[in-house]
Design goal:
By secondary structure, the chain is an alpha+beta fold. The protein contains nine helices and 17 strands.
Length: 360
């Protein structure tokens, strides 16, 4: 957490999950507004060129997730903040118009990435990890951006080679399951490059909070479709061999997987179950709408969304100054209440000058 003299310190109490387990709040079905692609070197494209197509294997599988490990390009892009999402917004300003020719604002309460919303929604059940979210208000819209915490940076610094290999396995699994073109075949020998990305931008609403957020998508089913695309989420997980492992799988992984998919209307998740050497021996499909029932003794979907609704209301109450240079920090220590601080000018600025100048 940033150490500095700040003003306007406020606290948001994180209650027990059962306290939020009331009626599920209104959540409008996410509606896709467009997409963007990022190329080999993170170059921005306002199109779907990086969209991949699901290609299910037709026989028994034995995927070796170690293939090509030394050639993989696996990078983290925490320094980008919201930049690519903001580029998409400027190219697609007309999509934010409400019966007017000129667009003076986005006509939405919040802009962020799905990953940030996932972190918020899982907070009632997260006791081990902290998070740091910064917010700035500009022309009536609050922009939310996640920043790495000291705990996260320490964890990355202490990462072992085994940790890096296991991270790479998840990316490698996708090369066995997707193709670059419809009716094509997977090329598992192609090197992994996490710079490349296909991202959808959706609009939704949680009770009184209107939302625009971007989300990376793994692939789409190879079939004709009208309206929303049948996207599919791809995951890997260790083979489950005990009741304790199954409980932890339901409690932690299925919660996060469900939140991620539900937020953008993905109907199903395909998981490759692997051994400790990185070999996937079987696949299992999870229907997203059934996941809360599978995990009903571990977590509640209502608790997640009721908490998120209350937290977003707290953010609105705190982030009052409409100035892109003014940033508010929301920090959640592991298992504790959330601390809000208004930061001195210059700390954690979210919006770049090129974006601000475009609107001004």
């Amino acid at each position: 957490m940033t150490s500095m003299n700040c003003e306007d310190v406020r606290y948001f109490s994180v209650k027990e999950p059962l306290d939020y387990d009331q009626r599920f709040p209104f959540f409008r079905e996410p509606k896709e507004q467009g997409c963007l692609s990022l190329g080999n070197d993170r170059e921005f494209y306002n199109d779907a060129r990086e969209l991949k197509y699901l290609c299910m294997p037709k026989s028994e599988i034995h995927f070796n997730l170690n293939v090509g490990y030394n050639d993989m390009i696996i990078q983290y892009h925490t320094d980008e903040k919201l930049d690519n999402l903001l580029r998409w917004i400027l190219v697609n300003k007309h999509k934010f118009s409400i019966n007017t020719e000129s667009v003076e604002s986005l006509n939405t309460d919040f802009v962020c990435y799905r990953g940030l919303l996932t972190v918020i929604l899982c907070t009632p059940y997260e006791q081990r990890e902290d998070w740091l979210i910064c917010a700035t208000k500009f022309k009536g819209t609050i922009y939310l951006c996640a920043f790495p915490t000291q705990q996260y940076l320490q964890r990355k610094e202490n990462e072992t080679e085994r940790d890096r290999i296991m991270t790479a396995w998840g990316h490698k699994f996708e090369t066995y399951m997707v193709t670059n073109r419809e009716n094509g075949s997977p090329d598992a020998k192609s090197p992994v490059n996490t710079n490349k990305e296909y991202c959808v931008i959706v609009r939704s609403r949680l009770k009184n909070h209107s939302l625009v957020y971007g989300a990376e998508v793994d692939c789409v089913e190879q079939c004709s479709y009208e309206g929303s695309k049948p996207y599919v989420e791809l995951k890997t997980s260790r083979n489950i061999t005990s009741d304790r492992q199954h409980r932890n799988f339901c409690r932690f992984k299925l919660l996060k997987w469900w939140v991620q998919s539900f937020l953008i209307g993905i109907p199903k998740i395909i998981c490759g179950f692997r051994d400790d050497d990185g070999f996937v021996g079987h696949l299992e499909t999870f229907v997203v709408q059934d996941i809360p029932k599978l995990s009903q003794n571990c977590w509640s979907a209502s608790s997640c969304f009721n908490f998120c609704n209350e937290f977003l209301a707290f953010v609105k109450d705190c982030v009052t100054e409409d100035n892109p240079c003014v940033v508010y920090e929301f920090y959640r220590p592991p298992g504790k209440n959330i601390i809000c601080k208004k930061l001195p000018l210059g700390y954690h600025q979210i919006l770049p000058d090129w974006y601000i100048n475009h609107w001004n």
